Every structure is written in structure tokens, then in C-alpha cells.
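Case 302 in the screening queue. Each case pairs one protein sequence with one candidate compound; here the compound is adenosine-5'-triphosphate. For every case the pipeline is the same: read the inputs, emit a complex structure as C-alpha cells, and attach any notable structural observations.

Predict complex for case 302.
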Amino acid sequence: MIRVRDLVFDYPGHRALDGLSFNIDAGSVVALVGPNGAGKTTLMRCIAALDTPGGGNIQVDGIDALEAPRELHRRIGFLQDFFGLYEDLSVRQCLTYQAMARGVARAERDDRVQATAQRLGLVPWLDKRAGTLSRGWRQRLGIAQALVHEPAVVLLDEPAAGLDPAARRELSDLLVQIAREGTTLIVSSHILTELADYSTHVLILAGGQLVSNEKIDQAIRAARRVMRLRLTRPDPNVENLLRDLNPVAVDALQFEFTLDGGDEAASALLTKLVTAGVPVAELGAVEADLERLYLERVRGTT
Ligand SMILES: Nc1ncnc2c1ncn2[C@@H]1O[C@H](COP(=O)(O)OP(=O)(O)OP(=O)(O)O)[C@@H](O)[C@H]1O
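Case 302 output:
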């Protein structure tokens, strides 16, 4: 569905995307993550054919972003991280305008606007001016504008920004539903627990380069077992005893490290620590999740 090759994008004096290549299959929900300044927003703008890359090639649904940007705009919905609204238009007019601009036939527009407003809980606001909406409702209108033309690909940059917890939950449910209907989604966010609720893939950028592009469940299954040791009080010998495992000190009482060899190895390690007089409170496996996967992948890249 999306094919990116050797993508390069330069701001004056700064290379923001540095030779990215990856594919995204139709129907995937991709969590686009990376440290601040990694290039996520720039990448989304290039895929949405709003910025022109200095090199490389992007195809979405077989359409070349450089050759046919207008055609692409009809097939893509994009919520930008800082987006403007037509403040003096009503919510209905904003959605109708977007539907029109993105090629929805006149006869279908009213139904699309109504259905999209329903999905985002915007029906009571349809005749209110966009300029009077609170931050969370503006955000919902922004999302509705990205969806109203039922695009094949939806790009959402920080969609949960400004939403209260209940609205975030509703947004997660909505994204799951949209993905089930076959839409390809790319969602950028720093809130990894939320992304984990609905994403099938994770695409990690750092410094304008691709760190990884993988299926989340497979990557988590394949992740090495991380163990956490918790002490009842600080112990000067513990780091020396764990030396071969390259421990990371979470704080003065907690250390994390990977351990091969399953329960046998864990049991042997526990015996070794206790025998050496280390005041062990707990030794156990840490559950792998998207956040851990991310931290492991970006470690050393920044
Ligand atoms: N208009 C601009 N002019 C110059 N440099 C820019 C411009 N916009 C972005 N950059 C730089 O390009 C790099 C990538 O920026 P981008 O906004 O794409 O990153 P990001 O991953 O979305 O970051 P964040 O997580 O902070 O939103 C950053 O180093 C940023 O400072």
C-alpha cells in the first residue's frame, strides 16, 4: 500500500530524512515513533504529498506522490500535529468543505458528514462555529476532517493530544474499527501504551533514519527475556555479581538485564546472589511491551 524508497528531505542546513526505505501493507496500523526531532512529522508530510522530498520516491496505493499529489490527496486523510480550522464555519460546513475538497460527490456529501460526525460524537456540535470548540472537540473535528472522505490511508499526528481519558479510549476504539474496515493507518504518538492498543506494526525513526519496521506481536514474542532484580537495601557487591549480564540500574535498588537459559538460569542466579549475601526482595521477568521494545531499539541511536 505504501512504498518508500531512499527518501531524503532537507530543511535549510538540516537533513531531516536520511535515505528512508520501507513498505507498509494495506490494512496495517502502524505506530510511527521516535525521539523528538526524529523526522516523524516530516515523513508524514512527505507521504501526504504536502512536502516535496529532495530525493527518493513514495508510492501510495500505486500513486506516485511526486507525480500526482492531487490524486493522492483524495486517497489520504491527514491530521497534522498543529492544524488550523476555519474558525467562522460551522462544524458541518468544515466537514462538508473537506468532503468537497477531497472529491466526495455532491450527492454523497451530506450522508458522509452525518456519518463521520456520528463516529466522532460531533452531532450535537454540527451547527456550532468551529471557533467556539474546546481543544478536545477541535481535535475530534480535526480527526473527522481526516476521515470524512473515507480515504484508503489515514495519517494521524498525535491524534490524542488534548483529549480527555474517555475520549482517548473512544478514539482507540474508533481506530480499531477503521482498521477492521481495511483502512491503512499511520499514527504518530509518544504515548506508547495507547499505540499498543490498536497498532499492528511499529516503525521507529531516529535522526531521520529507519531504526526498525516490524510486526509488534512478533517482535515482542522474539524479545529477549528481561529480568528485574529488586533489593531491600542498596548493596555495593551487586553490580559486580551481575557484571557478565550488563545490568542497567533502574535506581539504587533495581537492576534490569537480559538472561538466557530460562527458569534454570534464573534459579541459579538467585542462589548465587543470596549466597553472596545480597538482600534480594524480588527477582522476576519483566513483561515485554511496545514501550520496552522501543527503548531497546532506540538505545544507542541518539
Ligand atoms: N521548518 C523547519 N526548518 C528547519 N528545520 C526543521 C523544520 N521543521 C523541522 N525541522 C527539523 O527537522 C527535524 C525533524 O523534525 P520533525 O518535526 O519531522 O520531527 P518529529 O519526529 O516529528 O519530532 P517531534 O517528536 O518533536 O514532534 C528536527 O531536527 C527539526 O528540528
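Case 302 observations:
- The mean pLDDT is 92.
- The two ends are 30 Å apart (CA to CA).
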